[in-house]
TrEMBL record:
Residues passing through the membrane, by range: none
UniProt region (Disordered), positions on chain: 35-57
GO CC aspect terms: mitochondrial inner membrane; ribonucleoprotein complex; ribosome
Compartments where located: Mitochondrion
Top-level taxon of the source organism: Eukaryota
Pfam families, per database record: Ribosomal_L1
Protein name: Large ribosomal subunit protein uL1m
Keyword annotations from UniProtKB, A to Z: Mitochondrion, Ribonucleoprotein, Ribosomal protein, Transit peptide
């Protein structure tokens, strides 16, 4: 019950509370055990630590592998694992049962072993892969750095969004040009050093297959390829197909 004043709910309560201090005027009772408790604390540290250790050791029953029927508590059993073919078949079946869109994406989580023989681990990285079966019509915008007119014409014929040389550096630094990937031929690389800090991991390099002489091959990889990034030091989370 909510009320503006407590006296409205219980008449006479204010007078009783006002008279209460007069009743509680006696001295508090002595505590002869207080001193003993203080001295006991010094010698009881080990016993407390032993008690906490005993409490931490909690025995858990091992998880059972397979339930007896189709109604069970999930945390009593191990999580089932399936082969890729069976898992894909289950996804298709679930899609038919819950009436979702058949062209929804299929995502995958890949857990990598980043440990080496020594103590150091492999640093997280990003890369691009060209899948054997494309599942989307989207293409990435790719810029090609070259000062050779023949190479520039080849780049345009193979779908490059932007083609050019040194004149593009100023526009990129001022964010006038923004694309998904950057590729280059080796001859122009010494002139692109001002873009290293700006582009960072998108800076053309042989490790990422974005530096070379085969312009059509590089354009196909970065226009149609799937980029993946290692997250949380060892996990790749990306889409790989449609249901």
């Amino acid at each position: 019950v909510l009320a503006p004043r407590r006296g409205w709910v219980f008449p006479g309560l204010d007078q009783r509370l006002a008279a209460a201090p007069a009743l509680v005027s006696a001295a508090p009772p002595a505590r002869p055990y207080a001193a003993a408790a203080k001295t006991a604390k010094k010698g009881s540290q080990k016993t407390k630590q032993e008690e906490t250790k005993k409490k931490q050791v909690t025995r858990r029953w091992p998880l059972m592998s397979k339930p007896v029927d189709d109604v069970y508590l999930m945390w009593y059993y191990k999580r089932p694992s399936y082969d890729v073919e069976k898992a894909v078949g289950m996804l298709k079946k679930f899609q038919e049962l819950d009436f979702t869109h058949p062209k929804q994406y299929v995502y995958i989580n890949v857990f990598l072993d980043m440990a080496l023989q020594k103590k150091k681990k492999v640093d997280p990285f990003a890369s691009t892969v060209l899948l054997p079966y494309r599942f989307t019509d989207e293409t990435n915008k790719v810029l090609v750095f070259t000062e050779n007119e023949q190479e520039a014409e080849i780049a345009r014929e193979n779908g490059a969004a932007v083609v050019g040389g040194l004149e593009l550096i100023k526009w990129i630094l001022e964010d006038e040009i923004q694309v998904d990937f950057y590729v280059a031929v080796p001859a122009i690389m010494p002139k692109l050093i001002p873009l290293r800090n700006k582009l960072r991991r998108k800076y053309p390099s042989t490790k990422r297959n974005s530096l070379g002489h085969d312009i059509p091959k590089m354009l196909q990889l970065f226009r149609e390829g799937l980029e993946y990034v290692v997250e949380d030091e060892h996990i790749i989370k990306t889409r790989i197909a449609r249901v």
